[in-house]
Amino acid sequence: MATVLVCTLPLLQRCAAIALACFAAGCASLPPLEALAPEAAIPASTATELGRVTASIRGAADALSAVRPLPQANFALDARLELIRRAQASLDVQTYQLGNDKTGRLILRELRDAARRGVRVRLLLDDFYTAGLDPLLLALAAEPKAQVRLFNPFANGREHMATRWLDFFTDFRRLNHRMHNKLFIADGALAIAGGRNLADEYFLRSELANFIDFELLMAGPVVPESARFFDSYWNSDVVYPLQRVVRSAQPQEALVAAFDAATSEREAPRPEAPPDTDVFGEPRLAAQLARGELHWMRADAHALADSPNKALGTRPPGTWTLAQQFHTTLGNTAQSQVLVISPYFIPGDEGMARIRAARARGIRITVVTNSLADSDEPLVNINYNRYRVAMLQEGVELLEVSTRQLKRSAQMRRLLRQARGRLHAKLALLDREWVLLGSMNLDPRSERLNTEFGVKVRSFELAQALLFAYSLDHLEGVYRVVLKPDGRNVQWVGTGDEVNEVLDDEPDSSLLTRLQLLLFSWFVPTDQL
Fold it and tell me: 183, 207, 427, 498: least surrounded by Cβ within 10 Å?
């Protein structure tokens, strides 16, 4: 259900009080960033268990990487926990959001325990969603083997999102530039990349709404490529050590005690173990590591990323953004078919020109995105709607994910329970041979403002696995969007049952909600979405 903002008088009074408190305290700016010695990722080594199990891939003469898809949330979380517990040299974790919830606190506890075993831990967070996390992060950063750094941190009002917004509007150009990357590397040998943040809703652990997402477990040459991008962010001038930004009046002993309480088994329980095998019939990562062998798909895979300074006008000359590389790959590589999966999709005028050019070459285009009712960013959906008729007129196949449609499947009802189901995977399949994945949405914010990380893989086997895992050839749990006979308006056709209802209005959303969102969209520039 779309969220509508309503300001009441008490809320306005609270906001005014917060603003006065902020100005009374004085709005500080970020401290000068002291020069720090550059740090580099620790390369894979046979001195570690994970290095030994991947040694044959790194030493292969064909220079191919190895990949394993992680479409199931429980297997994706289980893989992370297993890698953290088996790491012996290093853990490099980069994410847009670390939840102050069961999953986020569990990850923090596991990273703390790894640091106490002597593993070098580097945690790099975008600072937008860290309100309330400072005490926990300070406790982790106090471990001798752990470091925490923040991308484009807030200098004021760190405790609450409401006070952070004051800082946001006084330093808009800088703070509007966020790090959306997601990357996890263990011992320089194994990496996980894709769309999941480290919070409950990305691993089917939320009671309200959960995301359908995708990640890739990787080994071989693509891992050091990914690590070099991590280092470029870690050492950049828009990233600050946590202790340079955050101060605490509490003694270290109190911070550690609070960390222990907040990350206890009661507050951060381990998830239930996943089944013995995943959707592909492959055993859990723990079982494969215990045998000392991993089941892989060999593939030509390469890591791609934006410059940390992408939106500040200081990225190195001649470098391309990830969005530019993505669109170039689509334009130069696709010969017959493009399937795009993106939770937030705004093609814009340039995107429409690319769509027309591809359709003129006879390329079939399918787009899967969220329906209005099930998008967590409904303003994005409103802007996508402006291009919907034009795309259909060009022959694009449009599919919109819907909780109502998803729950017609007994399996999805069991996984989602009472929660809503939303798409969050960012994928493109070209000609059933190329797979593009990562953190990038197909919207103006990802293209121009946020930094992103992605992986380009050439593998027929991986493409076929994704088509099977998500039933992409016969996709259900969606509405098919089609033109009405007049060719100027749209209808929604249900899937997955005998009736396949036809709707003339946005599914599961009221007229009032649609009007309110349309009104808000007039005041939010499209390039901010």
Answer: 498
